[in-house]
Amino acid sequence: MTKIAKKRTAVRFTTPSSIRPRPSKAGQKGNRVAAVRSGTKQSAAIEMLRSPGGTTIAALTKTTGWQSHSVRGFLAGVVRKRLKLDLESGLVEGIRVYRIAAEQGARPAETNSDGRKS
Fold first, then answer.
1. Is 51 within a domain?
2. Which of 15, 42, 49, 77 makes an SS bond possible with 100, Cβ 3.0 to 4.6 Å?
3. Using CA atoms, how far apart are residues 35 and 54, in angstroms rounded to an integer?
4. Could you tell me if residue 96 is inside a domain?
5. What is the pTM of this model?
């Protein structure tokens, strides 16, 4: 392919000027906790994790029908990253138990007397 033909091909595949880039979501980031719909496998798993005794990967796989590697991905990707929940794990009688710690982010932010956040 010649240089001129390459330029023509490159020009054809560039984005049209009518398509604008999406606005930045930088202002939306922060300590926002995403909502989880009720009645889903995710909500069932989170309720199990919120129980005082916690839960195991085996119990989560049985409840949700997911494979164990999918449960581990859910714990890391959804619970920790997307929902920003404090997930704790520990060994109880040689079995790894996961639970969501007391939620600190669920309380409203402290405000000054004039109504602004501190």
1. yes
2. 49
3. 21
4. yes
5. 0.58
